[in-house]
Design a protein that fits this description.
This protein is an alpha+beta fold. The chain folds into 2 domains: 99 residues, no CATH class; 148 residues, no CATH class. It is built from 10 helices and 4 strands.
Length: 278
């Protein structure tokens, strides 16, 4: 395929992209029909139906990617009529291209184009989730540092912090910290570095409540603060379980420090790549 044609087709697909008021990108099926060189709507509808089936078989909700719509079109002499249309996500366009007639040059291009673009979106989403987890880990570290300071100021020493944190772990996981490290195959590293984001935020929330109540109620002993921390972690655990999340049954995530280094490296590469001409 000639480079000029590739540029033309790329621009055509992007020119027909729309956005909802919430900023969600979509294409209209009637436009995509023309871009993929289907002259008759009924033939293109058959391709759309196959794409919907593929979407459902992949475990996604069809309505999240294929939303019924309509638009007015002119029929001559100033008259117009309403015709049915479908709002398509980029993933829906990819599935339609995959189920189209690959003998068409436009279909062959679209199959590759939307596959690449969809993959880009997946990578962006993955990076955002990784960044969220890194931030959640930093937030927990800050909150635990604050709890350590509160313990020091109100009990006269911070030797009790590790013990109190450990009791919190046992209340949240129904396992000791050591038992969870064995379960997750962690050696010589903090348990929190391998927690999924949901658990980092849950642990942080429980710790925030402990800090608040320890200050509010002027707790001055390890026993008081420990009992408070245990209660808060148990309450958070009960909330998670009520929503179908059992903390100790979740699989560990990749070491968050490795994730952070990877994100930092990717950022440096991106900045270097996009410096441009001086």
């Amino acid at each position: 395929m000639e480079r000029q044609l590739i540029y033309q087709l790329t621009n055509n697909f992007e020119d027909f992209a729309h956005k909802t008021d919430e900023g969600v990108e979509f294409w209209l099926a009637r436009d995509l029909q023309k871009l993929l060189d289907y002259t008759q709507w009924r033939n293109f509808e058959q391709v759309i139906q196959k794409a919907k089936t593929a979407c459902e078989n992949s475990g996604f909700k069809v309505l999240d990617h294929f939303a019924d719509a309509s638009k007015m079109v002119g029929i001559g002499s100033g008259a117009s009529k309403e015709i049915s249309d479908i709002m398509l996500t980029r993933y829906a366009c990819y599935l339609i291209a995959q189920n189209g007639d690959s003998r068409k040059e436009s279909i062959a291009f679209a199959q590759t184009y939307f596959a690449i673009q969809t993959r880009k979106a997946e990578l962006i989403e993955q990076k955002l989730l990784e960044q969220e987890r890194v931030l959640a880990r930093h937030k927990l570290a800050q909150t635990e540092k604050e709890l350590s300071q509160v313990i020091y100021e109100q009990t006269g020493g911070n030797d009790d912090f590790a013990l109190i944190r450990s009791k919190g772990d046992q209340a949240l996981f129904n396992h000791t910290t050591a038992q969870m490290k064995i379960k997750w195959n962690i050696k010589n590293k903090p348990l929190a570095d391998f927690m999924p984001t949901i658990l980092l935020k849950a642990k942080d929330f429980a710790t925030e409540i402990t800090i608040f109540n320890a200050k509010q109620n002027e707790m001055t002993t390890e026993n008081q603060i420990s009992n408070e921390h245990i209660t808060n972690n148990k309450t958070v655990r009960e909330t998670l379980i009520s929503r179908g999340i059992t903390p100790e049954n979740l699989p560990p995530e990749e070491d968050v420090k490795k994730v952070e280094r990877k994100l930092h490296s990717d950022k440096k590469k991106s900045l270097k790549k996009n410096k441009g001409f001086k």
